[in-house]
Amino acid sequence: MSDRLLAAYDYVLPEALIAQTPCVPRDGARLLVVKDQVQHGHAIVRTLPDLLREGDLLVLNNTRVIPARLYGHKLGGMPVEVLLLEPQAGGDRAAGTTHCWLALVKPGKRLKPGATIVFSGQDAKESTSDRVLSATVMAIDAATGGRILQFDVPAGTLLDEWINQLGQMPLPPYITQTEAHPDQYQTVYADRPGAVAAPTAGLHFTPELLQRLQAQGIEQAFVTLHVGVGTFRPVEAETITDHTMHAEWIEVPPETVAKIQQTKAKGGRIIAVGTTVVRSLESAVQSGMIQPFCGKSNLFIYPGYQWQVVDGLMTNFHLPKSSLMMLVSALIGRQRLLALYQIAIAEQYRFYSFGDAMLILPEAREERDERLKDEG
Predict the structure, then answer these.
(1) Under a CB-based contact definition with an 8 Å cutoff, are residues 232 and 197 in contact?
(2) pTM score, two decimals?
């Protein structure tokens, strides 16, 4: 089947393998190690220092998940659920003064432009109170089917304060029975608020593991990609090249670029922790070289992509037909990835956000690139 067909990225996962609660401790999760185009092994995340080389560089996404799921009601009492996606132009996001957001809403058909949503436990009749947060639906976003919401923030307060007070952690819909604490859906190095989903490969790291990696000469650098609808939006086009990614905000700072350049100059490898890091680094390439970058990117990586920066990848197991599966397939090949997923299923690995992980060593990609060169 062609790599360009959406159906080529499908697989059947037993529901029992969808992880509902994260591994404790974090670095006790299982790790499927992809050594080359044939060999694989089984390990534990905490053994990562033994699987990488001195001089390698781990790049991690330091975004922090905000409590983006809000519950309220329309004037008149109808319950409303809102998932904030990303702030819109205007205001200072860092200062909490961005009052206009793109959001997914339920029930969408009942929330047309002009509708008012009240986000407090007070009666809708008191919506003019200076102690109540409300929002007006300004427009419908054609690309996502979401709504542009303009928040009316009580005087003397910041919208971020209200979100932190009223919001809930936006766990994915396939996590239906969990005892996870909200902090378990954050990486231990998360310090840049703005994501509405966690960069899940990073959930496996502990401060102790990061220290051990550092002590072994495996350096670390950070990027920021505020995970949003671009990452988890389903691919619906039957031919994947017809799919357009929703742009997400990325920052690749100068210090990270410098570390990458130094690592490559010394013969080290760039290991991305998560697909969001992959998209961040590859989006920052200009004229064949990585450059500091701050802005939005809708880069869609699928088989045939020419890699510029990333050598290896640590990633969780992804949903069928997702853009994330297509990205990983671009690194090691679709058929190889699907075969590995069948191995993981047979070995009872745990899947998705709270699940186990896969480490694709650079040798696996290098061997595939060499084979494709010979075939071409």
Answers:
(1) yes
(2) 0.92
